[in-house]
Amino acid sequence: MTRVRQRDSPSPERKYVAATYHIIFVDIVRYSRRKPKAQYDVVTALFSIIRKTLAAISRESDCKLLPTGDGVAICLQAKSESPGEVISFISKFAAAVERWNDSQIRKLSDEGRITYLVNLWTNKAAAFGFRMGVTQGTLLQYVDINGNDNLAGTAINDAARLLTLAEPNQVIFSETAMRSVRDLDATGVDFRRLLSRSIKGQNFEGWQLVGPKGISSSSIGPDEEEFHVNDGLDDLPHLWIRTNHSDPKIFWNAVDAEKRGGPGCLNRFSASISGASAGVRLPCGVAAG
Question: Domain 17-210 carries which CATH code?
């Protein structure tokens, strides 16, 4: 008879190991709106981009990845160079997502591309937006119910809550994580302080990362950039929005037309648009993809 060797079950007597980590919590924007096959495609793309980016900064072998369904908590054990690696990871990750999305959006029809840019999701391609929350703190390494090494700690929970402050393609740091990066005097990186918000009964103050290519630098909250087009005139056949920004990527955040400017017309956007000038022609009443 062949004896099947079972994996050792966790022992209550086994001690945990504590260490300081940098946590980058990333999730996919509007993941749940997609059909199951589309969810599979975008999360598979996310995992692949994360692993390739970790390999690019030589941290793939000593990084803990905690999948969360529609995202991942990326836990880098702290070293003297770790704050710089966090920025390097975010920059390379955002650039890789941008390249991936460009390849996916090309597969769509003109109408499909407009629909994706407005809604930031589609079932017809694996393009996706992301949000990030970044913290730093002590985590406890333990053996979970499956016999695998796992991590637990408040810093992971805080990173998950910070990313809820982010708009699509934005990165929000805790104050501790922000200060560890700011002390490096990294070129091309800055932070914008956000107003404190209550999340699950706890006040959170975030710091929005500004600067790296591929990261949306649009303001959050009362200082958010707004473009009012034909306000109150919902019978026009199209909206024409034109602006000028330095970011090389278009990031749209669609706002509920019914509440903002009348049925069928999207007349308020927060955007980061490339080039000397760029225009996007949007039909009224664009439907979700």
Answer: 3.30.70.1230
